[in-house]
Amino acid sequence: MSRRVHLDANVILRYLRNDDPLQSSIASELFKRAQSEEMELIASSVILLEVFYVLASTYGLPRVKVAEILHTLVSSGLVVCDQRGIVLDALQRITANKISFGDAYLAATAVRSKEEVASFDKGLSSFKDAKLFPLESLTNSYRRL
């Protein structure tokens, strides 16, 4: 079995951005070794969320572009991700709707498990396959408090 290495967001960012001569070079070497199957790189869905946020917020990349970049990275097999199917589904949802990675991940998780989503976020209603819990049905309960 090959060596398994869990990636921090900063390593993925240096690899993708190639914006620091030393760190980007080291990150590229790590990815080259994974490509040659010398090691397996692991990125949790939480780390990918952090990468998504930094690329979109700090670097100002369009969310759709960030989703495409991360979709390519995860689907390439170069990086192993927990909940790979849900992450890929969430990234696809981002490209189709104006929604955050977190909300897209929430919708993908609920759809996969065939369960409901409770949210005040109206953006989740754009997913026809996500069943929303009717929070408004609780307004009578709220008034009693």
Description:
- 57% of the residues lie in helices and 11% in strands.
- The chain has 145 residues and is mainly alpha-helical.
- It has one domain (3-115): Rossmann fold, CATH 3.40.50.
- The protein has a three-stranded parallel sheet with strand order 1-2-3.
- Helix 4 (63-75) runs antiparallel to helix 5.
- The longest helix is centred in the N-terminal third of the chain and has 15 residues, at 21-35.
- The radius of gyration is 18 Å and the shape is elongated.
* Helix/strand order: EHHEHHEHHEEH
Oligomer classification: single chain
Name of the CATH class: Alpha Beta
Total separate domains? 1
Structural class label: mainly alpha
* Radius of gyration from the alpha-carbon trace, in angstroms: 18 Å
How many strand units? 5
Fraction of residues in helix: 55-70%
Provide mean pLDDT, rounded: 91
Q: How can the largest sheet be summarized?
A: 3 strands, parallel
The CATH architecture classification is 3-Layer(aba) Sandwich
Overall outline: elongated
Helical stretch tally: 7
Euclidean distance between termini CA atoms: 57 Å
